[in-house]
Design a protein that fits this description.
The chain is of the alpha+beta class. It starts with 5 loop residues before the first strand and ends with a helix. This is Proclotting enzyme.
């Protein structure tokens, strides 16, 4: 496979200054990927999911992480089904969680499927049956972030009841657009006025400025 050089790396300016909710970055390639490379390597381009995230929404997480807590990282790209949750457990395991249409997205491991060590940074993709198409699966809902447990005796990623958290990519849409130079509208997966209550981080911060 051809090597493609990286021109620059942009890390979110608030990364590492508190919660891992700003665990996001952008790599700019030195050269534009050619049409021949797209065809030869099956390269596709994702866009950001910009509709409301709802209870029991079907998604898939992709990564090279471990398949179980004490295992090794995978040498193959793995895919696992993720069902979006909105239970009280999501807030109990992380007080910063405030619903799936805010900064983070939650999923409770109810069948042994979830993210594990090494999956952080991988995409969470929309995977509903009624849009079972290549185009639908290019909708990036979130980014794998971390795991947490209510029961201190349960800390293994494969255990039932472990909570998975994902960065909400739509929450960072302004940052992605400003950093990449790509207009917001070109990043939208669905081309209509989005339905989110909060349009940017400033509105979110104003809503929560007294919360502590």
């Amino acid at each position: 496979m051809d090597e493609i050089s990286i021109k620059s790396i942009h890390i979110h300016e608030k990364f590492g200054h508190g919660p891992s909710l700003n665990d996001i970055g952008i790599m700019v390639l030195e050269d534009v990927i050619s049409e021949n490379q797209e065809k030869e390597y099956g390269i596709e381009y994702g866009k950001i999911f910009n509709k409301l995230i709802y209870e029991d929404m079907k998604t898939v997480a992709i990564g090279w992480g471990k398949q179980f807590q004490d295992g090794n990282s995978s040498d193959k790209l793995r895919v696992t089904d993720i069902l979006i949750s909105d239970s009280k457990l999501c807030e109990s395991a992380d007080f910063r969680y405030d619903g799936n249409n805010e900064m983070s997205i939650c999923s409770e491991n109810i069948n042994g499927n979830g993210i594990c060590g090494g999956d952080s940074g991988g995409p969470l993709l929309y995977n509903e049956d009624n849009l079972e198409s290549n185009n639908a699966k290019k909708a990036v809902v979130g980014i794998s972030m971390k795991m947490a447990g209510i029961d201190q005796n349960k800390k293994k990623c494969e255990e039932i009841g472990i909570i998975n958290y994902f960065v909400n990519t739509f929450y960072h849409l302004d940052w992605i657009s400003n950093t990449s130079g790509i207009p917001r509208s070109d990043l939208h997966h669905n081309h209509f006025d989005n339905q989110y209550q909060y349009q940017n981080q400033d509105q979110y911060q104003n809503k929560h400025q007294n919360r502590n």
